[in-house]
Amino acid sequence: MDAFPSGNLCPVGGELQFISCEAYLRYRFVFSALRLDSMAVFNLKNREIECKVVYYGPGRCGKTTNLEYIHKAFKKQVSGEMVSIDTEGDRTLFFDFLPMELGKVRGCAVRVQLFTVPGQVQYSSTRKVVLRGVDGVVFVADSLEARREKNMLSLKDLQQNLKEFGTSIFKVPLVLQYNKRDLAEQGLPTMSIEKMERELNNQLKVPSFPASALKGKGVGATLQECLKLTLRDLQKQLKWAQ
To answer: Confidence band (pLDDT; 50, 70, 90) for 35?
Structure first.
């Protein structure tokens, strides 16, 4: 199992729940967690900060699988329940809501909310809503050779959406994950790490991790690095805990 940040962690939250699109309206409360401001929520009086990390990437790349694994494997660090809403005709979920608490950092309580976005083209407006107010991003790329173009289009989509919110992809805390590395063992044509680095990370030059979300490999390391970059960025923005 991957390493994960330690600290005074909260108790186990609720159970993983899957609901259909028809049940969507019954779960409108989830939208209350979708911050529409452009920065983390910081309560100076209580010395508590709430930040938002979004898992982005093309359809079926493994964003949801990442969150499912985190919810299952790191129960002691999860507070609350994860809600998943299915889109019709596809395994990809509408979005996931997984609040996490990491204890205290320099005396400040930290609460992290993890979201995924739907990868399909037709859910562009939903991706923008979920991405708004983001503090950190994990971009999940699919290692399958057949998904090469979709990876690049999705990364371009991320760049454009961030730009519309007045944020540069070169400035937002960002980590790349090259998922489905295990498929090569099954004889499926996959891209090499070197090729994915050239095509996706040549200009960004951000941390990247090979992973197999189904097996949990690289999942914790990816999130840990994103949280580290996000908290460091927030400290600079808010002159927090100095």
So the answer is: low
**CA terminus-to-terminus distance, the chain:** 33
State the DSSP code for 53. E
Residue 150 has pLDDT above 80, yes or no: yes
pTM for this prediction: 0.81
Give a yes or no: residue 10 inside a domain. Answer: no
Q: What Rg value do the Cα atoms of the chain yield, rounded? A: 17
Does residue 76 lie within any of the structural domains? Answer: yes
| Whether the Cβ atoms of residue 134 and residue 230 lie closer than 8 Å to each other | no
33: phi then psi, degrees, rounded to nearest 5: -85, -10
Q: How many domains does the chain have?
A: 1
CA–CA gap between residue 70 and residue 64 (Å, rounded): 10
97 found inside a domain: yes
Any domain includes 12: no
Q: For residue 68, give the CATH number of its domain.
A: 3.40.50.300
Q: Cα 213 vs. chain centroid, distance in angstroms?
A: 13
